[in-house]
Amino acid sequence: MFSKQVITFVDLCLAVTSHFGANPIRYSHRTNLFYTSKYTRLVARVPPILIFATQVVAFIRISHYFLVPLEHSDVYQINITYLMIMACIIALICFYLLLADTPEFVHTLNQTLQYARYLEGRWVSKEKCVEHPSGKMLEWFLHFVALITGSFSFFCSAMSYLMEPNLGQWITLIPRKHWTPLLCWTSLIYYAYLTVAAALAIAVTAGLTTAYLAFLMSLLGVYFHFLREFEKIFKMSNFLQYLKNLWRPPPSTAYGPLIYHLSDWCMMSCAYPIVFSGNGNEVVFLKGPGHLGLLTLSVFTMALNSAVFMLHFLKKSLGMGSLSGSPVWKEVMIGYFFSVIMVTFSCQIVTLWRKTECKFLVKTAFEMEKYCREVMGASNYTIRFLVWFCELVKMTFFLPTIAVCGMTVIRPCTPPSLGAIVLADCKAGWERSGGISFTQKILLGLFEGYTWYLASTFCVFFHAGVLIYPAEMMRLWVTLVERQAEQYPQKMKSYRVAQVVQNAMNSFWRKPLMPLLLLLVMIAEIMSMFLLSTSFSKLPIPIVIFFLVVWVDFFFDVHVLVKCLSLSHVCSERFVKNAKGRTRTVWGQRFLRSCSSLRISMGGGNFFDRLTSPMIWQFCVDRVINLLLV
Predict the structure, then answer these.
(1) Domain shared by 411 and 461, yes or no
(2) In the record, which residues are listed under signal peptide (predicted)?
(3) Are 527 and 490 part of one and the same domain?
(4) CA-to-CA distance for 392 and 209, rounded, in angstroms?
(5) For residues 239 and 419, which has the higher predicted lDDT (pLDDT)?
(6) Distant-in-sequence, close-in-space partners of 292: CB < 8 Å, separation ≥ 6
(7) Which of 252, 493, 596, 607 is most buried (most C-beta within 10 Å)?
């Protein structure tokens, strides 16, 4: 597995890097083991401390450029300093991996060597070990890393001599008139040493980690035929079987795993009052400083976005800004993003207020499906279009976040970026962002990506976790109760469970939550259809992708999900009607008089029925036509 050439080369590299202070680990040919000492660990702590101090100085120097207009000469210096900070962060991570628990790291490396030597010749012949490609590939990789590291260290040191000092170097804190040759050479040697130490630390971390992985690959490949099994996973037949199961779900298909994955992705943001427990079997309230901190961050992010958009439209309405300079589609686009942010923020606040009902709905829905499958023998109950929709949401869940983040970095003055409203460099137009530094673009992109990740989680969680899934479980429960009541009339009393879930749903979705959700659905569908039909060629590609995803998701939302909300009402009406025809006992007739059909309320005395879906779609199409006629 590990040839003598590899061991000798690793020994040489570790000896050189430890003398530079880039590595606390050495190799002994006398004992054929890795080891570490207090001296090597002490010396290896010096470069990361110096690098960290350098990064603090660099960040302080460029921080005052974040919110001020930049000159063309400043942009170059800021970008060079920013790239230096990013590269040194990687080096600090590698130093942390090497120094966090060095004795344990050394113990792991020694165990790997001992296992390799023990297995070679005992379990498998030496010929097979030599023939396995992992050893030769590891040797080539280590030589390649050494070549890249040496070249990088030489060229970066030479560039430090040829280039002017950037803002991140401490010598720039001293007035230029006091620069002496000794001071300049001291600064040059200092940063050349840190560059070489950082490169060596990254190389050592990559080399040792790769050596460990090479041992695992050879072990699993030779002894457990792991590589053959790994190839079977990606066979075309498995992919075709997945498509077949998706097109025609087998009887054993359940909603639970799909809804659990989607809800878990949403709850990772901690933007809701509930989260799955560590083992994933229970739904619990948020607790602990980490959860509450992320919850506070999500509320602050949505509140900040809402306030900025609200101030923008307030200025427009008071005549402090002019709408004549922008095309209609641009103002409609800003209005769409403002509506989505405001609606999702309002839904978050209401959900925090009704956290008990939220927890009850999520927990009860999973328990109902589990009981129906294990006790009542439910099978072949999934709706094909609903399964398709859940798979579609899984595939496109992070696409809006990535599209908005990438678009903000590339074009920071284009909505939904707040830069289009708050940055002075964006006043000249959405396409002109020359005065914005690369650091501002990155920070703005991360902020907008997080914002629209929150917006995506709200849409998915409100639809799947606490609306469609409980409604589907109500339909399944009523169907199974009706089936059992045909043989055992006393089973009708289980209908009360569905009524309890209905009351909990209507309590959670009472005004203003359900009207806000329907408003979000209709706004998203109307605006996406309008912008794609009128401004397809004018929109940036990430925004086109974003609105295509929005249009497809909410098209299925209107035609599939809204229709699913009416199925429990239809099934309960049929159950009550059939039960009244079969029941002859006084108790049964009295019980059925108290059993009304299940109705998921829309607010204002209305509820979801068979005509709700086409009525919402007709309303959306009519509004798009009205906008096109403006």
Answers:
(1) yes
(2) none
(3) yes
(4) 37
(5) 419
(6) 286
(7) 607
**Statement: residue 218 has pLDDT above 60:** no
When divided into structural domains, the chain yields a total of: 2
Closest among 462, 468, 474 to 369, alpha carbons compared:
474
Beta bridge pairs of residue 26: 35
Quote the tokens at residue 23.
Answer: 């590595």
Distance, in Å, from the CA atom of 522 to the CA atom of 479, rounded to the nearest integer, reads 31
In the predicted model, what is the mean pLDDT of the chain?
79
State whether 221 and 263 are in the same domain. no
Task: Please state, in angstroms and rounded to a whole number, the distance separating the CA atoms of residues 519 and 116.
Answer: 63
The answer to whether residues 354 and 222 belong to one domain is no
Instruction: Answer positive or negative: Cα dihedral of 245, 247, 248, 249.
Output: positive
What would the DSSP string read from start to end of 452-480?
HHHHHHHHHIIIIIIIIHHHHHHHHHHHH
Counting DSSP H helices and E strands in the chain, the numbers are 24, 6
Output the DSSP codes for 241-301: HHHHHHHS--TT--SHHHHHHHHHHHHTT--SSEEE-TTSS-EEE--SHHHHHHHHHHHHH
User: What are 49-82's pLDDT values in tens digits?
Assistant: 888 888 888 777 777 666 556 666 666 667 777 7
Range of the domain at 61: 4-227
Are 222 and 244 within one domain? no
Domain boundary, last residue among 165, 193, 227: 227
**CA atoms of 129 and 4, how far apart (whole Å):** 13
- Based on the domain organization, do 223 and 248 belong to the same domain? no
Record the tokens describing residue 373, joined without a space: 């499958």
